[in-house]
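PROTEIN DESIGN WORKSHEET
SECTION A - STRUCTURE
LENGTH: 701
TOKENS:
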């Protein structure tokens, strides 16, 4: 309808002498107000279909309409005289009911912009499904029909499934700030009908760009990726994925893959990722952060105990990426173990202890979930009973209690399910809920620091907030202590040692601040290499992203785990970065990893004193095996991909009436035709109009 104009400057000034002296005003900037904070819903694809949102290639344009209530939808869908509309939704109206009505009336809807509130809503909201990952966990019709598809326990009853719908118009999230106030004022000044009067042009309009390249499903987009008709073939989608982070209490030879003789490991697991309806807003406080922070604190609490009195079994700390999307990370680790592509195999796995959502405990209780199907095996059942007893013993003297659910039910959504798909393994999943999730904002943009009650007294500086021990930090410290003690005894450690194993509340509060409030802080800066400082943001986004690069959470957890479980070694930066103790060392790199980190900044200077950390921390691929096997329609593995896009942006402007546009076009065409006619007449009479008297032949000078 309206397009941006290019810069206009007199041609006279496009010379070297005057080019730098003349400022060319941008007509585009005078027409449009660009939106700086734009986070979009994007298109994702799997084996069967596509979900998410997109705009047309040139962006969708619509007249702004601020929706005031669900009853007000009739204006957008039927009676409004100026469709299509760009609908502005306050967060309480961002519901499945309203969004599905807009979807079904999409011929009159150009797009939707949701104003994200500065505080969480009172009511629960989860755009995820009611039964997360129901088709890729262990509970299939073949495993146990009675427990398949959440038949016994509906884990996420508030789930409305919006994140898994397909919308053929763009949907953006807007921050509730000055920019949003400009949009509201533009609507009030130009678009809101007063006392039944008709709207007067010009009207306030919005344009949203989020065109997606991939369509249909993963098999289709991967086939298009393989078409090479040009030197630079166009890639239209990428597999979701990242890297798992893992470490062991006893060094394992990571070069020699497969089974390790005489090695028995207890896997301590947590997930790293989360998501929401909008791809770049995934705070994941309860769904992800509460679990992996607890496991990090437990690993730190066990550092001295496991090095001073090494238990018989090795504890393997694992942090899985991509679990939200059909268990990408855990299914990959199990696949690698089965195919001798990991440092261990499944025969080395003794048991599993997984930490799930543990940040919202009612009555300071934790619930110990186990798999009733595998427990029909007597040996598995005895091991599970033993692990439960160890967890009860570990909680003695603490303000947290542990308890089994009072009825038989399947495991909640958890990485442990992927291990059970391979074989019966004893294991427990620790959660803060007995049946349905306590988390009212599961996989939504409201699952944030505020919801986890990570709050600080007023007037504290950022550094003071970093050090302030919150009530949530104290509670998770207790959980981490229980986990650490239980892991130690499960690995064969002596019970008299348990009283000395305690998580550090200062470390926990620093992690909560760093992962939920501000990762760019003095503590994190000293624990990472200088080249990763640019990755620090406020706060991290826990969406898994695509497999080409490590995400910020993966890199931060990798370096934090190394610092919490490793040791400082006195070697040069060159040797550290070359993975060796000295120039003659050829063996250490197989057993350890070395990281050179920035260190503490001196009080009166900028030059940091870096040092080398030696640890057992490694990264392993968190890419679904379906993409290595090229099984893009697989039922066994995740097949999620993300579409590529050119740009995601939005802007508002005033749009003239259709009649005025036609009049302007008509006048322009008339001026063009008139100029062409005049040009023709002048050209045909040029001899007369431009002739001059002939000079006489005998003229002399």
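SECTION B - SEQUENCE
RESIDUE ASSIGNMENT:
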């Amino acid at each position: 309808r309206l397009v941006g104009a290019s810069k206009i400057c007199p041609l006279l000034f496009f010379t070297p002498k005057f080019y730098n002296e003349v400022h060319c005003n941008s007509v585009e900037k005078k027409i449009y107000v660009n939106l700086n904070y734009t986070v979009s819903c994007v298109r994702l694809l799997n084996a069967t279909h596509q979900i998410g949102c997109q705009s047309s290639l040139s962006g969708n344009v619509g007249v702004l309409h601020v929706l005031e209530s669900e009853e007000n939808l009739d204006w957008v869908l039927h009676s409004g005289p100026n469709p299509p509309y760009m609908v502005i939704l306050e967060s309480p109206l961002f519901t499945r009911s309203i969004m599905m009505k807009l979807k079904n009336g999409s011929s009159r809807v150009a797009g939707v912009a949701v104003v994200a509130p500065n505080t969480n809503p009172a009511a629960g909201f989860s755009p995820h499904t009611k039964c997360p990952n129901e088709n890729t966990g262990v509970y299939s019709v073949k495993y146990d029909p009675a427990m398949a598809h959440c038949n016994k326990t509906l884990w996420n009853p508030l789930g409305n499934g919006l994140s898994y719908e397909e919308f053929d118009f763009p949907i953006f999230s807007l921050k509730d700030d000055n920019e949003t106030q400009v949009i509201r004022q533009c609507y009030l000044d130009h678009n809101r009908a007063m006392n039944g009067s008709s709207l007067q042009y010009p009207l306030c309009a919005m344009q949203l760009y989020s065109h997606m390249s991939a369509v249909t499903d993963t098999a289709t987009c991967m086939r298009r990726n393989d078409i090479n008709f040009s030197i630079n073939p166009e890639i239209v989608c990428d597999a979701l994925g990242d890297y798992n982070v893992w470490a062991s209490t006893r060094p394992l030879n990571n070069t020699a893959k497969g089974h390790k003789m005489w090695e028995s490991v207890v896997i301590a697991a947590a997930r790293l990722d989360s998501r929401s309806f909008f791809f770049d807003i995934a705070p994941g406080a309860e769904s992800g952060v509460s679990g992996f922070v607890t496991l990090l604190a437990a690993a730190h609490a066990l550092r001295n105990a496991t090095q001073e009195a090494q238990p018989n079994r090795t504890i393997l700390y694992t942090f899985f990426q991509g679990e939200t999307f059909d268990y990408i990370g855990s299914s990959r680790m199990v696949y690698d173990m089965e195919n001798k592509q990991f440092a261990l195999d499944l025969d080395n796995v003794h048991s599993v202890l997984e930490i799930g959502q543990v940040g919202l405990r009612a009555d300071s209780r934790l619930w110990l979930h186990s798999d009733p199907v595998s427990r029909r095996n007597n040996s598995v059942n005895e091991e599970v009973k033993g692990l439960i007893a160890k967890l009860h013993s570990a909680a003695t003297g603490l303000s947290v209690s542990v308890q089994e659910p009072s009825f038989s039910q399947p495991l909640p959504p958890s990485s442990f399910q992927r291990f059970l798909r391979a074989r019966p393994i004893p294991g427990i999943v620790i959660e803060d809920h007995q049946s349905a999730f306590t988390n009212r904002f599961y996989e939504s943009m409201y699952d944030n620091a505020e919801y986890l009650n990570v709050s600080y007294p007023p007037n504290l500086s950022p550094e003071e907030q970093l050090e302030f021990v919150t009530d949530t930090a104290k509670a998770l410290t207790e959980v981490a202590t229980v986990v650490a003690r239980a892991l130690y005894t499960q690995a064969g450690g002596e019970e008299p040692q348990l009283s000395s194993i305690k998580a550090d509340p200062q470390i926990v509060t620093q992690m909560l601040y760093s992962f939920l409030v501000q990762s760019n802080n003095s503590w994190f800066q000293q624990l990472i290499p200088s080249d990763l400082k640019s990755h620090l943001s406020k706060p991290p986004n826990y969406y898994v992203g695509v497999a080409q690069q490590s995400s910020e959470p993966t890199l931060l957890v990798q370096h934090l785990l190394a610092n919490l479980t490793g040791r400082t070694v006195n070697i040069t930066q060159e040797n550290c970065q070359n993975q060796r103790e000295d120039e003659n060392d050829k063996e250490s790199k197989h057993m350890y990893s070395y990281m050179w980190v920035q260190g503490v900044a001196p009080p009166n200077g900028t030059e940091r004193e870096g040092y080398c950390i030696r640890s057992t921390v490694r990264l392993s691929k968190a890419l679904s095996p379906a993409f290595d096997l090229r099984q893009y329609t697989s039922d066994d593995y995740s097949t999620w991909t993300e579409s590529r896009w050119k740009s995601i942006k939005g802007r508002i402007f005033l749009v003239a009436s259709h009649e005025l546009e036609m009049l302007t076009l008509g006048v322009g065409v008339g001026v063009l035709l008139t100029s062409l006619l005049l040009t023709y007449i002048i050209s045909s009479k040029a001899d007369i109009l431009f002739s001059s008297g002939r000079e006489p032949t005998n003229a002399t000078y």
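SECTION C - NOTES
The chain is about 30% helix and 15% strand.
The longest strand covers residues 60-67.
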